[in-house]
Amino acid sequence: MESHRVELYIYDLSMGLAAQWSSVLTGTTIAGIWHTSIMVYGREYFFGSHGIESCNPGKTALGAPKETKYLGETQVPYSVFIDYIAGLAHSTFSAKSYDLLDHNCNNFSEEIAHFLCDRSIPQYILNLPNEVLNLNLGVAIKALVEQLESSARPIEEEQQRFSRENSPDLSREIEETRYNNFLAEQRRKTLKEKLAKRERKRDRKRKKILASGGILPEELEEVTMADTESSLNGTTDASPSDQVLAMEEEERKAEEEKKKSRDPPVVYKDFIDVKEEFDSLLGLIDGKLTAEEKKSTEELQQYMMGDEGSWALGEGFLEFISRLLNDKQFSVEVRVKILNILAMAGLKDDIILLLHSDRKDHVLMNYAYDIDRLSKEEQEALALFVANLFESLSSSEWLLYISEWPFNNQQISNIRVTTKVAVHCLLSDNPDLQDRGSAIIYNLASKEVKTVVFDDLAVEITMAILQFFNQKPSEEQLFRCMKALARFTEVSRQEVPQLIQMIGPDPNTFKGTSERVDVFIEKISPKIR
């Protein structure tokens, strides 16, 4: 996945005056009156009394930041980020929610830092409001800072404000246009570098030929021209910019072909009646919710049945989900209903917004990791949810994240949880779980990812598949698992073939089941001989 650098811009609203005069006036030194913003995707994002705004980096009236702090890299797609920002602008970080001490630019930077790369901003910045309030001149300083805050505004005409009057679609369109232009420029720079590298390679080739004395200068020119024609598809008189555009077009076509060649995932689209499931859920939880949780049910209804985007899900939505999944006051049926609804939400492209907002608490994946402790009904609903997340590229990639966090005295990650769910379901004696487990494994094997992602897991999944083969699977399940096995023999070229040989059964045992199964058996067989 493409990574983007995330930086924290730190400004001193007092321009150094706080450090100079605070000890004289208050007896306590304040290093600065801190204002922060997040720089990512070539733009600077911040929050103030006018709501969420963005501008080109360093283009506020504050000038250049006092300090720039590297926070990390994010793999969050730009379009997902803009949807997320638009949602915040209509809820948690609307202009009217701004409060200098309790809900300010630094709280916004903390929120975005966690969303993008699961990092926090420095604690001394977050502690600043308490330091100010504890001073004798706290009220006066607060009034001063409120005046200074107005200077943290964009000075450029094309500033973008994410306010209520701007719809998410319009915000996204404006920002995506800017970012696409930024990306195009970056791609051109990269392609120019490639072109220059290619020219240097040709120069070395020409010098080597001349040094060998085996070719005349005029013959060298013919070789050079032929080489150039080959590299530029016959456009020998193309300008450097034309050459770059031609190379860029080749890369674009290659990317399109890659998308076209993606195998359709196995998902369950018409499995649940969302309205019926939602109405049943409301009946089961009636009278047991707080006012905030009731609001979350309304947001869920808007998202699933009202054609609203996932930005409609408020800040407390995951806490609501966490309570339904973990509070034993609720019945198993409640957990099954909400999981089934989330499984249908998994088919939506923008479900990734909800998934990324769970990067801090890992509500969904922590619950999924305990699949072996859940009831049969919960396991079935959970497997449905995981399988359906493979519908879109962004959510399927989220399932393969390798970043770890501690849970029950061990380190787990998204891909380890996904693998555990798949293996557990496949080896179950429940036909529905077996079907969904084979679907997840098929979807895993269909992903075009770096082999390093599967290095540690190919063996585990292979052992589960071989064990499952002893249960005489259906043709559909056999096809899914045989495809996965063929993929893993490519990923782990020694261990997986050795396991197949040692444990069995030999894939050739199933030869003749169907033509499509035979295709993968033929791919596996030469590698285990």
Q: Describe it for me?
A:
By secondary structure, the chain is an alpha+beta fold. The chain has helices at residues 17-26, 78-89, 105-117, 123-126, 128-133, 138-149, 168-212, 217-231, 240-260, 274-285, 291-305, 317-326, 332-345, 351-357, 363-369, 376-388, 393-398, 414-426, 431-446, 451-454, 458-469, 475-491, 495-503, 515-524, and strands spanning 4-12, 34-40, 43-48, 51-55, 67-74, 160-162, 404-407, 410-413. Strands 5-1-2-3-4-6 form a 6-stranded antiparallel beta sheet. Strands 7-8 form a two-stranded antiparallel ribbon. Helix 19 (431-446) runs parallel beside helix 22. The radius of gyration is 28 Å and the shape is flat.
Short description:
The protein is of the alpha+beta class and 529 residues long.
Core attributes:
529 residues, 8 strands, 57% helix, 9% strand, flat
Main sheet summary: 6 strands, antiparallel
Oligomer: single chain
Give the low-pLDDT segments.
136-140, 163-183, 214-241
Identify the overall geometry: flat
The proportion of strand residues reads 5-15%
Query: How do the strands of the widest beta sheet line up side by side?
Result: 5-1-2-3-4-6
Helix-and-strand structural type: alpha+beta
**What value does the average pLDDT take?**
79
Radius of gyration: 28 Å
Cα(first) to Cα(last) distance is: 35 Å
Helices, by number, come to 24
Q: What is the percent of helical residues?
A: 55-70%
The total beta strand count reads 8
